[in-house]
Amino acid sequence: MTEFKITVILAYCVIVICICHAQLPKKDVYATVPQLLSKNGYPVEKHRVKTDDGYILQVHRIPAGRRFARRSGTPGGKGKKAVLVVHGLLGSSGDFVVMGPQSSLSYILADGGYDVWLANLRGNMYTTHENLTRNDEVFWNYSFHEHGKYDIPAIIETVLNVTGLSKILYIGYSMGTTSFFTMMSQRPEYNDKLIAFVALAPAVYLDNIKPMASFLLKSIDIVNTLRQQGMMSAEFRRDIKDFVAGSVCSAKHAQYDVCMRMIFSIVGEDYEQHVWDMTSVIVTRMQPASWKQLEHFGKIAITGTFTQWEDGLWGAVKPYNLSNVRIPVSIRYGENDQLTEKSQILRLAKELNDTGTLYSIKPGCSWPKFNHLDFIFARDVGKLVNKPLITHLDELYNKFHKE
Q1: Do the strands 194-200 and 329-333 form a parallel or antiparallel pair, or are they unpaired?
Q2: Cβ-proximal residues to 227 (8 Å cutoff; 6+ apart), any chain
Q3: What's CA 308's distance to the chain center, in Å?
Q4: Is 174 a catalytic residue?
Q5: Where along the chain do its domains lie?
Q6: What is the bridge-based pairing of β-strands 329-333 and 233-234?
Q7: CA dist 258 to 22, 24, 302, 320, 349, Å?
Q8: What are phi and psi of 172, to 5 degrees?
Q9: Which one is catalytic: 93, 174, 233, 290?
Q10: Cβ–Cβ under 8 Å, residues 313 and 298
């Protein structure tokens, strides 16, 4: 990767890595997840989850599908299959809703008979803190390490307490997989509370983006430069996002759409599966992230190791213990994913296979241009990925669920 290409990407990298796409009318661009679910005829609940270190996470539940008649009481009661779905970097529970009932994973899961729980990890619009405000620098002092240590365990406990179940399924996308593996490394007791794990585009090894990470974090020290200018996090004001969305990201054709061209230069090109009218919605619904999240991913890329943060970006390298994973893991990857690239996925798969936990690994679908973001917003993601995924989840549940 040339310095010129990296410099061009720099202006966009914060807002394009692992963000979601939406197939929404313009009036629904700022609609909340509960509003979108209700509008589409699905039952929805909001649950308040408090972590051990004081963060308050709003988790969204879809206890039944639109096609199922609601019984009295809670439709997702004891005995129903429950699944936790966890978003990626700069995302939220909205990642699995915005493409609509025919495409988005949450709707298809609910219609497939699952009790669906959509996580929100600290930092996005659905999260707060019991003592800190978002203007407090310490609020943003976290990475995916804390997601795994505090957020995911707290959410799992809430799901188990509400449903009365002893175990649930877990689906993670991108950073949602990173959080799973960090949780298992630090808190292996959660193997006993999960049935199986499905990893969509897992972000564990990132050697392929080492040149970009080294340039941004070392050569030009972009994060510390922005910190010194008063930016406590990778967060952009709504008016700025609206301006970008309505100007440079509003083109309808590939040759004019600068935003998607920059995004594709990072995640892999797939113009055929892109819905051009929705480019601006990607920017509009983008969620904040901490600088430490980006730096921690950068440390993994630069060191070539799935390492803990320890004493900082240039500090000690201490690998997370993947051998702590004891439940079946299924991996789905994109053949043209340039962010979590296939060779790095296969490296992870080998480690899991060596410990006997790899259940399956295969492309997310047969489309050869399928990229990192296609798992969320490809034009045909419902048909290509999500509907077949229901069959696979049923297989995992029937094979590994034990009362």
Answers
A1: parallel
A2: 291
A3: 19
A4: yes
A5: 3-398
A6: unpaired
A7: 18, 21, 28, 38, 35
A8: -120, 140
A9: 174
A10: yes
Q: What are the distances in angstroms from CA 229 to CA 31, 225, 226, 320, 328?
A: 32, 7, 5, 33, 46
pLDDT tens, the chain, 403 aa long: 444 344 434 444 433 333 333 345 455 678 899 999 999 999 999 999 999 999 999 999 999 998 763 443 445 555 589 999 999 999 999 999 989 999 999 999 999 999 999 999 999 999 999 999 999 999 999 999 999 999 999 999 999 999 999 999 999 999 999 999 999 999 999 999 999 999 999 999 999 999 999 999 999 999 999 998 888 888 766 666 666 656 666 666 666 677 788 888 899 999 899 887 767 677 777 899 999 999 999 999 999 999 999 889 999 999 999 999 999 999 999 999 999 999 999 999 999 999 999 999 999 999 999 999 999 989 999 999 999 999 999 999 999 998 6
Q: How far is CA 59 from CA 52, 82, 84, 86, in A?
A: 16, 14, 10, 10
Classified as helix, coil or strand, 245 is helix
- CA pair distance 51, 227, nearest whole angstrom: 26
- What pTM did the predictor assign? 0.90
Residue among 300, 306, 137, 151 at smallest CA distance from 227: 137
H or E element at residue 378: none
d(CA 352, CA 238): 42
Domain 3-398, CATH homologous superfamily name and number: Alpha/Beta hydrolase fold, catalytic domain (3.40.50.1820)
Counting every residue written for the chain, the total comes to: 403
Helix axes 175-186, 152-163, angle to 10 degrees: 90
